[in-house]
């Protein structure tokens, strides 16, 4: 992980660092020079000013227009930083916060820089060269800014730790990242924290405990399913807060086979589960005084002699039966069982929040920047929306009410897993899921199909979202 510190004097800035500032900031004024004046004049026109020449003792000087430090919606500051830090000129980045930028913008920038520590070099899958990496982040600020920025950077460092663990797991190729591999990695990572404990259900226990939907999805694969519950005991008593993640380690679509282009990124169909693990690691890192359970529903949706068939019926652990009229709608099946199991494990849980790369329809509705939020609990809706605004990891609410009932009607079972009319796909999936959480437990569903990946240059990698949203929501809920 990248180390961090706060600075309050320009004399503390080390030589050969990369300073990112803005025109007119107290730090920029303290470092005034002809070069600084010329670059500040360029930035005041709304253009980024950047140089690696004649800026000694700095290795690089970047002056970002003031308006970009206030832009909470379009990530202008991070978009500036992305190419600059792709091939850094210094191991040490100094982010100037003395001009009172918007704290959400600072959060996003700090989060991005900490996430630069993510790489898969140790897997040996790609020839790499020894290139310079950022190892230190400093925030320059006034003394009166220190308390708020100290809390911010500590939280973001822990968030990035969880995000990097989740991103790494999701990026690993699916022939290696099987349900059992996820369990093994989770146990290895959780072993570093005495407050974390792993509980594993293998394929036999899944059948014995009646998780028929998870079993139906996973039984077609030579890599059997798993249910992993991670328990965090940061307090001796109090309500448990539960998070459930879809963990389809690879999704062929089953007998409802996807086309090749649609299958390319399907190793990422376990991002929901990976992010639950990452969130649990973040919570443990911060040693929060809370009881939390994370449930990972892990399976590979494959084709084989035992693969589930369209039209078959499976029974969940809460007794409800589901007609599987589309084997490529498997995520809601494993989630349904995991939500029901979580509610039975802790019947008085404070809330259950599930997350999943569930539907392409949510991307068509909301794009790649917003996660879809579906809930019937207004307090949870408002709290998650507010947390999204605070963290810069935003959600947008979609409808969820009885008008969707006919979308999950089945002639032979309690429910069917997809609507026959191909309408309201995202909300219909959430309507199915709501049957598996008892009415007395507040529940929310996050469809992160658009946000769980970062897409650039025709390539996709895991993003680690919505860990920032959920950590902020949890912190708010504790205070």
Present the secondary structure layout.
Blueprint (H helix, E strand, L loop, with lengths): L2 E5 L10 E4 L4 H5 L3 H10 L5 E3 L8 E4 L12 H11 L5 E5 L6 H12 L21 E5 L5 H26 L7 H12 L5 E6 L1 H6 L3 H7 L7 E8 L6 E12 L8 H4 L7 H16 L4 E11 L10 E4 L5 E4 L6 H15 L5 E6 L4 H6 L4 E5 L2 H14 L3 E3 L17 E2 L8 H10 L8 E5 L5 E4 L2 E4 L4 H12 L1
Parallel strand pairs: 1-6, 2-4, 2-5, 5-6, 9-10, 9-13, 12-16, 13-17, 14-15
Antiparallel strand pairs: 3-4, 7-8, 8-10, 11-12, 14-17, 18-19
Helix pairs in contact: 3-4, 4-5, 5-10, 8-11, 10-15, 11-14, 13-15
Could you explain the architecture of this structure?
- By secondary structure, the protein is of the alpha/beta class.
- The protein is 35% helix and 21% strand.
- The protein contains 15 helices and 19 strands.
- The strands form 4 sheets. An 8-stranded mixed sheet has the order 7-8-10-9-13-17-14-15, with helices on both faces. It has a 6-stranded mixed sheet with strand order 1-6-5-2-4-3.
- Strand 18 and strand 19 form a beta hairpin.
- Helix 3 (76-86) runs parallel beside helix 4 (103-114), helix 5 packs antiparallel against helix 10 and helix 13 crosses helix 15.
- The longest helix is centred in the first third of the chain and has 26 residues, at 146-171.
- The chain is elongated and about 80 Å long.
- The mean pLDDT is 96.
């Amino acid at each position: 992980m990248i180390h961090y510190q706060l600075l309050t004097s320009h004399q503390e800035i080390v030589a050969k660092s990369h300073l990112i500032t803005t025109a007119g900031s107290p730090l920029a004024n303290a470092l005034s020079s002809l070069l600084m004046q010329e670059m500040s004049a360029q930035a005041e026109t709304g253009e980024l000013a950047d140089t690696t020449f004649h800026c000694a003792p700095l290795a690089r000087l970047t002056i970002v227009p003031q308006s970009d430090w206030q832009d909470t919606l379009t990530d202008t500051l991070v978009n500036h930083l992305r190419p600059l830090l792709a091939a850094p000129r210094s191991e040490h980045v100094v982010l100037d916060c003395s001009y009172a930028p918007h704290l959400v913008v600072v959060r996003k920038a700090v989060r991005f820089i900490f996430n630069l520590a993510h790489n898969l070099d140790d897997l040996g899958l790609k020839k790499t060269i020894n290139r310079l990496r950022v190892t230190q982040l400093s925030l320059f600020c006034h003394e009166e800014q220190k308390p708020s920025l100290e809390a911010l950077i500590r939280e973001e460092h822990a968030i990035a730790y969880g995000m990097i663990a989740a991103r790494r797991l999701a990026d690993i190729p699916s022939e290696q990242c099987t349900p059992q591999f996820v369990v093994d990695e989770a146990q290895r990572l959780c072993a570093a924290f005495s407050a974390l404990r792993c509980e594993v259900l293998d394929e036999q226990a899944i059948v014995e405990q009646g998780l028929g939907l998870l079993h139906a999805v996973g039984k077609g694969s030579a890599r059997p399913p798993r249910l992993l519950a991670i328990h965090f005991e940061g307090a001796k008593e109090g309500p448990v807060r539960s998070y459930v993640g879809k963990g389809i380690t690879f999704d062929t679509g089953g007998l409802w086979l996807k086309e090749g282009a649609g299958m390319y990124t399907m190793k990422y169909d376990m991002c929901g589960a990976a992010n639950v693990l990452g969130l649990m690691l973040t919570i443990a890192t911060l040693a929060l005084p809370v009881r939390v359970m994370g449930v990972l529903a892990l399976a590979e949706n494959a084709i084989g002699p035992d693969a589930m068939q369209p039209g078959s019926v499976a029974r969940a652990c809460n007794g409800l039966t589901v007609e599987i009229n589309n084997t490529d709608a498997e995520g809601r099946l494993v989630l349904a069982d995991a939500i029901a199991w979580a509610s039975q494990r802790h019947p008085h849980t404070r809330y259950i929040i599930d997350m999943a790369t569930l539907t392409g329809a949510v991307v068509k509705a909301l794009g790649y920047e917003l996660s879809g939020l579906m809930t019937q609990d207004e307090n949870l809706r408002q709290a998650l929306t507010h947390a999204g605004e605070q963290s810069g990891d935003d959600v947008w609410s979609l409808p969820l009410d009885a008008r969707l009932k006919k979308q999950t009607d089945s002639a032979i079972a309690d429910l069917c897993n997809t609507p026959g009319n191909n309408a309201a796909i995202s909300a219909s999936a959430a309507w199915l899921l709501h049957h598996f959480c008892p009415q007395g437990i507040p529940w929310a569903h996050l469809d992160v199909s658009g946000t769980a990946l970062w897409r650039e240059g025709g390539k996709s990698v895991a993003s680690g979202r919505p860990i920032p949203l959920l950590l902020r929501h949890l912190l708010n809920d504790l205070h």
